[in-house]
Design goal:
Helices cover 24% and strands 18% of the residues. It has 437 residues and is of the alpha/beta class. The protein has a six-stranded parallel beta sheet. Strands 9-10-11-16-13-14 form a six-stranded antiparallel beta sheet. Helix 2 runs parallel beside helix 4. The relative contact order is 0.08.
Length: 437
């Protein structure tokens, strides 16, 4: 549930000048009013106001058993000069722009929610680079469980709205997020804010004809699910709703009867959820340095990205490949972290989703050929505008021993996996295709 301690409306029947004075807000509009939104700002320096806001949050946890509280517009609380010009704001007692009272309130809010109701999540919609939003107060953080990754959202949507022929110049939009990913516990949001106020639906942002739009949408959703971080998708995205969100209506359920694409998108999201649930490597190590590694992030020319996901014991391990153009790639050699057969567990181009049904016939066999700083590799078929994922047919020997409780089993020689390098090795994929963009 969303809570809004950042501001409140000026309605005369509500909290504004509740007793005829500035009771909940500041008297001075330089601290008590949002110019952009026409709303009022709570006076976090008053104990009564802080108690009112925190009691409200605890009430929802206690009586309605909400399992998460998202705090809206956190950035507007943290900065005294938020959306203000010089002379329109008052510095704090140290002469700075930080709202010290709001910071104390957020720390107290998070501390009490987490201690009174263990397991309840608190989530910050915070759009700046304020540090340690999702770190505990005793480390200097604000204490939230998670923070929305607004940078990932903006960069990703900017990338996907581009015509595929231009994407090779903007691949950094998809790789940049990993440079700061481990600074916070991030959620990857495709929220209500992105499908209202004339922005259009997710589907409407995608370039090309209907086939390409839906292929792009499935690719976007697959990338969101398999990339590190927790997922948030606003209603309607899972069926490829064409119109932007209308708060006065309902979802366009009739689209599920209008051809294969909408139904296929719904089935794809359902299968993504099944895969996510079945593979701890996709969620157990979201914020662990060992849970993600680029395999090749440098093939800008072909707009191909690849990365690996795994859990700490390598019981669950996946290799993910994105082909971000409508050109199928054949005999595309890619490095793999270990030998054996790798089974194709996801293909967004499958016919059941409305795709062209190009794939790898169920899997590939790793060869003893160095590639992309990996000791093994295989030749893949990359379907057009697709995301595909593979897992080893056999669990790694050390992982199998751990899973069976045989921790004293003699370890085999570890497989060399130099995945920390961002730039690919001299291994170049052999690509053949008669189609053009």
């Amino acid at each position: 549930m969303t809570g809004v301690p950042a501001h409140f409306p000026r309605d005369d029947w509500a909290l504004a000048r509740f007793d005829g004075t500035a009771l909940y807000e500041h008297e001075d509009p330089r601290k008590g009013a949002h110019q952009d939104w026409g709303t009022l700002i709570f006076n976090y320096g008053r104990h009564e106001v802080v108690n009112f806001l925190i009691a409200n949050a605890l009430f929802w946890c206690d009586r309605f058993h909400v399992d998460g509280l998202r705090v809206d517009a956190v950035a507007s609380m943290l900065y005294l000069d938020y959306s203000r010009k010089p002379g329109q704001w008052i510095p704090n007692k140290f002469g700075g722009r930080e709202n010290l009272e709001a910071i104390d309130f957020l720390r107290q809010f998070n501390h009490l929610v987490h201690t009174e109701f263990p397991g309840v999540m608190t989530i910050a919609e915070e759009s700046t680079a304020w540090p340690q939003v999702s770190r505990p107060p005793y480390l200097g953080g604000l204490g939230f469980s998670f923070k929305w990754n607004m940078g990932w959202m903006h960069d990703t949507l900017e990338y996907f709205k581009r015509d595929p022929v231009h994407r090779k110049y903007h691949q950094n939009d998809l790789t940049f997020a990993m440079l700061y990913h481990h600074h916070e516990n991030f959620i990857l949001p495709l929220s209500h804010d992105e499908v209202v106020h004339g922005k259009g639906s997710l589907l409407a942002r995608m370039p090309g004809d209907d086939w390409q739009k839906f292929a792009n949408l499935r690719l976007l959703l697959g990338y969101q699910w398999l990339f590190p971080g927790k997922n948030l998708l606003f209603m309607g995205g899972e069926i490829g709703q064409r119109a932007e969100w209308n708060a006065n209506g309902e979802m366009d359920w009739g689209l599920l009867q209008a051809g294969p694409y909408h139904k296929g998108t719904q089935q794809f999201v359902a299968d993504l959820n099944k895969l996510y649930l079945a593979e701890p490597g996709l969620w157990q190590s979201d914020y662990d340095q060992t849970g993600f590694a680029w395999i090749d992030a440098s093939d800008h020319e072909n707009s191909v990205l690849s990365f690996g996901r795994r859990d700490p014991e390598r019981v669950s391990e996946l290799v993910v490949i994105l082909n971000l153009t409508p050109v199928p790639r054949y005999k595309y050699r890619l490095g793999l972290p270990r030998p054996g057969r790798w089974v194709e567990v996801l293909n967004s181009d499958a016919a059941v989703y409305g795709g062209s049904n190009i794939g790898n016939l169920g899997g590939v066999m790793a060869e003893d050929v160095d590639c992309h700083n990996q000791s093994f590799s295989a030749e893949f078929t990359l379907p057009p505008m697709s995301i595909i994922a593979f897992k080893p047919e056999q669990v790694a020997p050390t992982a199998a021993a751990t899973r069976s409780g045989k921790r004293d089993a003699k370890p085999q020689k570890p497989v060399e996996t130099k995945q920390e390098n961002l730039i690919s090795s001299s291994c170049l994929p052999s690509i053949s295709s008669s189609k053009t963009l």
